[in-house]
Specification:
This protein is mainly alpha-helical and about 300 residues long. Helix content is about 60%, strand content about 0%. Strands 1-2 form a two-stranded antiparallel ribbon. α7 runs antiparallel to α8. It holds the Pfam family Retrotrans_gag. This is Retrotransposon gag domain-containing protein.
């Protein structure tokens, strides 16, 4: 290779090297420009995720957690009424607390928390007893069932099923309305556990005589609820009629009166008093100008 060819080859290599250097500088400038544009876009949209993440990047970036469902506002139940140890009311207090525990289970993580809630709603002698048990760290304050049983045994007289049955069979309407009597009857019936046939007879037997007299000629319904409804309607009519008689005129028949009521009203009107027989020498029963008819 002569010197001319060598110089020509060297010139070509220099031109190629210069061109490669220019391309390298251009690529660096382009990469810097891309980085600048990317940073500007991220500043404008900081929360917008990349639409096309590079391969393999999706496994490294955790998926966003789904939004938590909105919790509906819970229905608030009134707290139990304070119990001071009255006989016959302990069971109602225990039932009140059970409803509260069932409705808000997340608020009571242990039996001791439930017992503390019950003690906070006691008063009087019942609170004094419970506070003494709590202060001495009694085993009763570790078990909800044991605390409930002890509270009931302490302040509610122990009544056997026979005592309950005797109280139930002796229930009477008395001077109450049938509606009030039915409320007392249903309360005791719920605790008795008797069947519907026995409850039917007990309710009918406890009605006041004035109601029974009205029901005797009727064809009584077969179920207890219908019997109670019939007795309530009968009692309401009797009371309404009595109210009309007491406020209405005695000589007029009321608009809602019945024949029996009218007869009773007429019986209340006194008859004319009988005349006394004439005395001797005072004249005969019928006189004209004090002259006897036989004169």
């Amino acid at each position: 290779m002569d010197s001319a060819e060598s110089s020509t080859l060297a010139a070509v290599l220099q031109r190629l090297e210069a061109r490669l250097s220019q391309q390298e500088d251009f690529q660096k400038s382009l990469a810097a420009h891309v980085v600048q544009v990317t940073s500007q876009v991220q500043e404008l949209h900081p929360r917008q995720p990349l639409t096309n993440p590079p391969p393999g990047a999706s496994s490294a970036v955790p998926a966003p957690a789904p939004p938590a469902p909105a919790r509906c506002s819970e229905i608030r139940i009134a707290p139990p009424e304070r119990y001071s140890g009255e006989s016959g009311l302990c069971r109602h207090f225990l039932t009140d607390c059970s409803i509260h525990f069932e409705h808000s289970p997340h608020a009571f993580g242990s039996d001791r928390a439930r017992i503390a809630f019950m003690i906070s709603h006691l008063s009087g002698r019942a609170r004094a007893w419970a506070m003494a048990e709590w202060a001495r760290d009694s085993p009763l304050c570790m078990s909800l069932l044991a605390f409930q049983e002890a509270l009931q045994c302490t302040f509610d007289p122990i009544s056997t099923s026979r005592d309950k049955a005797r109280e139930f069979t002796c229930i009477r309407q008395g001077g109450d309305s049938v509606c009030e009597y039915a409320v007392r009857f249903r309360t005791l019936a719920a605790e008795s556990g008797w069947n519907s046939v026995a409850l039917y007879d007990v309710f009918l037997k406890g009605l006041a005589p004035r109601i029974q007299e009205q029901l005797i000629p009727l064809d009584l319904p077969s179920d207890l609820d219908s019997l109670i409804a019939l007795a309530v309607r009968t009692d309401n009519r009797i009371r309404e009629l009595a109210s009309r008689r007491s406020h209405g005129p005695m000589g007029e028949a009321t608009s809602g009166g019945t024949e029996a009521a009218e007869r009773q009203i007429f019986r209340q009107v006194p008859a004319d008093p009988p005349r006394s027989p004439p005395r001797g020498g005072e004249g005969e029963p019928m006189q004209v100008n004090r002259a006897g008819l036989s004169a």
